[in-house]
Design goal:
With 144 residues, this protein is α/β, with parallel strands linked by helices. The chain has helices at 22-33, 45-55, 67-77, 100-128, 139-143, and strands at residues 13-17, 37-42, 58-61, 82-85, 132-135.
Length: 144
C-alpha cells in the first residue's frame, strides 16, 4: 500500500485574501502545511508579514476593493492554482443607524472583492486547465 503524500499541494500556488487573521489565517496555515506556496494578502501588512514569516509564506498588503491593485498583485505574485476569498467586513449596527457609505463598503469588501480577485486569477487557471476558488462567507450575510 502506497504512503499518503505528506505534501498534497506541493507545486501549487495559493492566494488567500484576508489571510492575516481569523479563518483566512487558519486556511493559509493549512495550505502551507500541505505544501502550497502561499501568498497572504491583507490590508494589515504587518500582520500578513508576521504570519508569512511563521509559515514560510509571502505577505502582501492588498485592498481587495482596488481592482487595479488586485490585478497587479496577481501579476507580481502569480499565477495561482488556488484562490481563497476570505476577506470580509461586518457592520455591527442596526440598519437604521447605517448609511449608504456603510452599505457601499460592505458590498465592496464582501462582494466586489470576490469579483476582483476571481477576475485576476481566472485567466491563468483556465490556461493551465486547473484551478480551485474557495469563497468564504459570513453568517452576517444571511442574517443581515
Amino acid at each position: 500500500m502506497a504512503a499518503a503524500n505528506p505534501t498534497p499541494l506541493a507545486g501549487r500556488r495559493a492566494l488567500v485574501t484576508g489571510g492575516a487573521s481569523g479563518i483566512g489565517a487558519a486556511i493559509a496555515r493549512r495550505l502551507a502545511a500541505d505544501g502550497a506556496a502561499v501568498v497572504i494578502a491583507d490590508l494589515q501588512s504587518d500582520a500578513a508579514a508576521r504570519l508569512a514569516g511563521e509559515i514560510g509564506a509571502t505577505g502582501v498588503q492588498l485592498d481587495v476593493t482596488d481592482f487595479d491593485r488586485v490585478h497587479a498583485v496577481v501579476r507580481e505574485s502569480g499565477p495561482f492554482d488556488i484562490l481563497v476569498n476570505s476577506a470580509g467586513v461586518d457592520q455591527h449596527a442596526f440598519f437604521t443607524k447605517t448609511s449608504p457609505d456603510d452599505w457601499r463598503r460592505l458590498l465592496a469588501v464582501n462582494l466586489e472583492s470576490v469579483l476582483n480577485t476571481t477576475h485576476a486569477v481566472l485567466p491563468a487557471m483556465q490556461q493551465a486547465g486547473y484551478g480551485r476558488i474557495i469563497n468564504v462567507a459570513s453568517e452576517a450575510g444571511r442574517l443581515g
